[in-house]
Amino acid sequence: MSSGSSTKPHLSDLARLRRVRDRMDREYAQPLDVEALARDAHMSAGHFSREFRRAYGESPYSYLMTRRIERAMALLRAGGLSVTEVCFEVGCSSLGTFSTRFSELVGMPPSAYREREAGAMMGIAPCVVKQVTKPVRNREARAPGRA
Fold first, then answer.
1. 39 alpha-carbon distance from chain centroid
2. How far apart are CA 39 and CA 6, in angstroms?
3. Which of 109, 117, 128 minimizes the C-alpha distance to 69?
């Protein structure tokens, strides 16, 4: 094994990380924690968090919250649910944390987003809506060369 290979995740680790990431995508509304996800990847929590960040560029918690916020955006656009109901529907247990994280990722509080976006995407294909409404992390928004 070369000295450079110790800094790269092994293919078997990447496969396990992908399975766990897929689980996070499917079960975003479930109470998922790093320890349980790490067990699924057959890794310690610390090792899992480091390898996940190395493979996907963000922590497992950050990735999960982004999935939850994406789903919350869709529910808020659809209308019919209060912000509190949306918060719990997507698996968040704290309205304050949900609102703070939503504001960080979307740039406005969930109630303002709901008012602005309700019905705005009617008639547009869901795949297009998903692409144009995907939250952008602050670090991505500030990257040089981005509009």
1. 20
2. 22
3. 109
Lookup: tokens for 69: 């916020």
pLDDT (tens digit per residue) in 66-112: 999 999 999 999 888 999 999 999 999 999 999 999 999 999 999 99
Buried b (16+ CB within 10 A) or exposed e, 3-23: eeeeeebeeebeebbeebbeb
Exposed, middle or buried: residue 95 (CB in 10 Å: 0-12, 13-18, 19+)? middle
Helix locations, the chain, DSSP H: 11-26, 34-40, 45-56, 60-78, 83-89, 95-106, 110-117, 126-132, 138-141
Asked if 33 and 22 count as a contact pair (C-beta separation under 8 A), the reply is no
pTM for this predicted structure: 0.74
How far separated are the first and last CA of the chain, in Å rounded? 42
